[in-house]
Design goal:
One of its GO terms (biological process) is response to other organism. It is a single chain. The chain has about 270 residues and is mainly α. The chain has 3 domains: about 45 residues; about 80 residues, Homeodomain-like (Arc Repressor Mutant, subunit A); about 100 residues, no CATH class. Helix content is about 50%, strand content about 0%. The chain is built from 12 helices and no strands. The chain is elongated, with a radius of gyration of 21 Å. It binds a DNA duplex (21 and 21 nucleotides) through helix 3 and helix 6.
Amino acid sequence: MGRAPCCSKVGLHRGPWTTREDALLTSYIKNHGTDNWKSLPKRAGLLRCGKSCRLRWMNYIRPDIKRGNISPEEEDLIVRLHSLLGNRWSLIAGRLPGRTDNEIKNYWNGHLSKKLKNQGLLIKEVVTRRLTPRDHTSKKKKKNNNNINNNEAKCINIENVKMNKIYAPKPMRIYPTYRNYVTSAVTESNDETEGTNGRLDSGDESSSGNYQEILSSSDINAEEANLLDVNHYLGSDLDLVNCDFFLQDHEVLDRVYQEYLQLLNVETDKEN
DNA sequence: AACTGCTACAACCGCCACTGT
DNA sequence: CACAGTGGCGGTTGTAGCAGT
């Protein structure tokens, strides 16, 4: 791998993890938890950076991880969630117990996108937008054609987007005022919120009671409340203020909400 | 057997949001 | 308010392994 090591990673191990490293990491986390990734490798006796340890743990070592054999039901759910959320792999993974964002991302890029394209179901890759556009000019150009899907996607004219409408909410965080309503509601009813970055536990329906009470006692109007409800269940973090896509098109909102309800039904059926 | 092309996926990178000081 | 540290995310890359020639 020919990249220059970033920041202070000089002298650290890179590349594939050995079984010994896995064992060290597993042993340390079992005994001490994952409270500080930065200092973890040193304390665990690993010559790796914290990021690398975190990635290894989150994607491969964690005991609750399912690997491989993505079922047709899971595949269907991935496709549907992707049509709703775009390339927000962590959110999609959050709806698939035991699956990681990296696995779903790889599965999509290496398998599903091609399959859908062959079936004529995917015309345009969904490109999620960040709050502040990244500067891509410094990125290295790709050398080979392995990622032709991405390159093709960038070249596709918007006029070609006809066969399959893809609703791609902006990957934004909830506007602070609204987030306060939501997080307080979720926290009151369930201590197992995701806990980081103010994001919500996407799958928890038990909190909807308090959540609705807070909404009803607030000055949020029905339209915004409806949208918040979608955000709440999807675990999304749409920006209500800037999300023209929703607020300017009631039909789109209805469709997204209906699709969301269908997703819930799919999951309920699976649980039963 | 040697070479080439392709695929899958583990791992890395840079960026960004959040939090604490 | 500004800044630094940290965790998390999505995009990208390198390589092992396989199939075809």
